[in-house]
Amino acid sequence: MLLPIADERQILELQERFSKSFPWLKIEFYSHSHHWKEGSLESEVIDLEKMIGEIRLNHERGILEIKSWYQTGRVEQDFKHLFGLNVQIFKLEKGKWKQTVSSDKLTLEQQREVVVPTRI
Question: Which of 39, 40, 68, 95 is most buried (CB neighbours < 10 A)?
Answer without folding.
Answer: 40
